[in-house]
């Protein structure tokens, strides 16, 4: 496909966060510097012309999708049916919307925490923790964003916290994961890739007494320079995704030298563009090259 002289890119956001973040503005500015027209709107906007008229729709802040999951799927499929190009590709995003995708990556040889997906049932959770011999486990909805519904549960306290778990997880299923304590001290490492090429990485350290590293929990965030062996493990995850994404964030923790995958984010991940002065430019260049193909 010949390069467009002035491609139009539409950023899909949401009503709670209707403007690009400070980090994303670096990407917007770089796109405009390279001749693109950039617009944005909530994915739920009544007027969908900003998306239907775009050369590429980019899912950059659809952070409420889990509250209207079927509507979100329908919106994505509607764009695809109308011939609108979406990044990341709709089929890949659909695969990524339910965290059970981690099981398919584990089956392909990627190390993930011990885990299972359960119906939203208190006894099923207790029985699974007993079966594994776990005193603690991380529970979360199979569809969620920004740390919504993520909780560390103690086996002996399931009954007293169950109503809060059920309220935050419904209407989704329950993902139960092994708790790996090194996250408290070493945090999470997030590897960011643009069109298959490594760009930069971030280390997120939870606050004292916390294990969650989502922005709502105010972790310490810093640039991270991975060793070659660390990066190779993240690349292995990327190469096992069903399709190559335009952008991806591979999140995990290190258990010794072994990378344990927590998420492979290809829907609407924050990309920590503020941690590398050239990251926004690299993302813009990759996006324009994607359009030109």
Automatic annotation (TrEMBL):
Name by which UniProt lists this protein: ATP-grasp domain-containing protein
UniProt cross-references to Pfam families, sorted A to Z: GSH-S_ATP
Organism the protein comes from: Oceanibaculum indicum P24
Keywords, comma-separated and alphabetical: ATP-binding, Nucleotide-binding
Domain ATP-grasp per the UniProt entry, residue ranges: 102-292
Gene3D superfamilies referenced in this protein's UniProt entry, alphabetically: 3.40.50.20, ATP-grasp fold, A domain, ATP-grasp fold, B domain
UniProt cross-references to PANTHER family, sorted A to Z: GLUTATHIONE SYNTHETASE, PTHR39217
One of the record's GO molecular function terms: ATP binding
